[in-house]
Amino acid sequence: MPADWIAPATLAAGIFGLTYVFISLQKIHFLNLDRPSAAIGGALLMVLCGVITLEEAYAAINLDTLSLLLGMMVLIAYLEQAGFFQYVSAWVLRRSRTPRRMLTGLVFASGALSALFVNDTVCLLFTPVVLSAVRRARLDPVPYLIALVTSANIGSVMMLTGNPQNMLIGISSGLPFATFFLVMLPVGVLCLALDAALLVGLYRGRLPAEGRLPDEPLPAVDGPVVRRMLGVTAVVLALFLLPAERLVPGLEAGRKLPLFAMTGGGLAILVGRYPPREALRQVDWPLLLFFSGLFIVFAGVEKAGLLERMHAAVAPLFGTTSASQLAAFSAVSVAGSNLVSNVPFVLVARHWVEAPQAFANPELMWYVLALTSTFAGNLTIVGSVANIIVLEQSRDHARIGFLAYLRAGLPITLLTTAIGVAMLWLMLG
């Protein structure tokens, strides 16, 4: 059903704009339309309106990114079934003897696990345990829930497996996993410490400095399966860290992550002892559809020449010096990630970084894009999927209003972003 009477660029722009509006609104209840369905709807319109062909749509889907996501989600599903995440969160809270130490322990545990096992998963599985612990201790749950969200977002920046936008950046840029980790590790650790300090300062009236907490009961855990899955995780990490050319002849560095993530997922199925069907039910299939739809939407936008026009429109904002490019790009990334969500923004911004001679230091800008698009999620209560997960799971136990969250989210986002970008400039500038 090609729309020959409308210019392809106009059609593509309209479909792109409509798709992003629906994605930005998170969920339209009267249409039963959420982010994955908005992306798939936009993809279908690109094909039905003749902006791209069906063959071009199939070719646009980046299987490397989807494979990386799927492999990690399968591995995480087996760890979840074995009770690993619930046990770790309860153990950390049990070891904390005062309310302030509990918050600090939660920040570092959530941040560390989010780097490897995806921040959304950590928030999903930690929230019930945190709510149970604060109820038993008769503490205000709000500081702890905000600590969980902000630390999961911050910690996820440390590895290319920490969140979906990092995975996309890893595939697009070809940055080595080990190099990315070594650069981002000090940034993530320092920003987690800053996050904990800011939260203790902001909520010091609700966080008694003294007072012993009741022991948190440890949930049941399937020890043999957990040990097997941690062994598989160690193997996958080792494969990520080793040079690709030494592992598989002819393997490109940029394709190492998806191949070995799927290898890890396959090993998890082989040694996991649980029926694969049960684990696969826990895979976030809507997220894979969301990515697939966005890839097709962007293929239409690219074919219509709109990506070049977007870059031409924003390029003057960045200036010509490294300092001006760093500051302006960081600001645009934080704003754009909050306006349309971080994954859709990264899909646009990666083309700006890839453009020839667009930036004085393209490698630095890849790291800045990863950091700013991730930390931007801490700005508002709906800034990331992780935030929404915690908000939805805790709504019967704690009320976190938009302004109440912003009181913590704004200073945390501004300070961690400023310090993180400054550290990246010192290391790579």
Quick overview of this protein structure:
This protein is mostly helical and 429 residues long. The protein has 20 helices and two strands.
Features:
single chain, 429 residues, mainly alpha, two-stranded antiparallel ribbon, 73% helix
Structural class, judged by helices and strands?
mainly alpha
Beta strand count = 2
Terminal Cα separation, in Å? 50 Å
CA radius of gyration is 22 Å
Q: Averaged pLDDT, please?
A: 88
Sheet with the most strands, sense and barrel status: 2 strands, antiparallel
Number of domains: 1
Strand order of the largest sheet: 1-2
User: Which range best describes the helical content: under 10%, 10-25%, 25-40%, 40-55%, 55-70% or over 70%?
Assistant: over 70%
Low-confidence stretches: none
